[in-house]
Design a protein that fits this description.
The chain has about 180 residues and is mainly α. The protein is globular, with a radius of gyration of 16 Å. The chain has 8 helices and no strands.
Length: about 180
């Protein structure tokens, strides 16, 4: 279970607060995914996590742009960054499948939380132009779940990471030539 504690009740906070929370969640995620990526020796696993990291970076930047449209500058919270690093340290070195299982447990609540933002603030979301970034935020968590489940089911690395790669809007990292033994 993730050490990051975020509010689940988006009806009690405004859209701005919900977007700020999502942004800080991506700050946490970028730090965590980067650290995990750095720790991996298997070139395919490293490539998969680089793809996951890039989606986190893209979403962090898209949320920052959405917040700017609302007149708010997104500033990465150092505590969130450090919490992401701490979470990574907790799982770095675990066997691959055990590490994936740890992540699989944390993702479904994020899908629910991010879906709730759009529902709870439906009229405001369209007015401020945040629907696309919120939809993408949900899709990226769903794609991450699909990746983890694919790996846990033993699918080929290129197939399990496919849903994540499909979300990338920027350059896709080159996959490794061969799988490490």
């Amino acid at each position: 279970m993730s050490t990051r504690d975020r509010t689940n009740n988006t009806t009690e906070v405004g859209l701005l607060d919900a977007l700020l929370d999502a942004y800080q969640g991506e700050v946490f995620g970028v730090a965590m995914y980067r650290r995990v990526t750095e720790s991996l020796d298997d070139p395919w696993q490293r490539w998969q996590w680089e793809c996951l990291t890039r989606v986190e970076v893209e979403l962090r930047d898209e949320l920052a742009a959405a917040l700017l449209r609302l007149g708010h500058t997104a500033i990465p919270d150092e505590e969130e960054h450090d919490a992401g690093l701490a979470e990574a340290e907790r799982i770095v070195g675990l066997p691959w499948l055990e590490m994936l299982h740890e992540f699989t447990c944390d993702l479904p609540p994020l899908v629910e939380r991010y879906s709730a933002i759009a529902v709870d603030h439906e009229s405001a979301v369209d007015v401020v132009g945040c629907r696309e970034v919120l939809d993408r935020l949900v899709r990226h968590e769903v794609a991450s779940i699909e990746f983890h489940r694919g790996e846990l089911a033993g699918r080929a690395p290129i197939d399990s990471i496919g849903p994540v790669v499909d979300l990338l809007t920027g350059p896709i990292p080159d996959p490794p030539i061969e799988r490490a033994s």
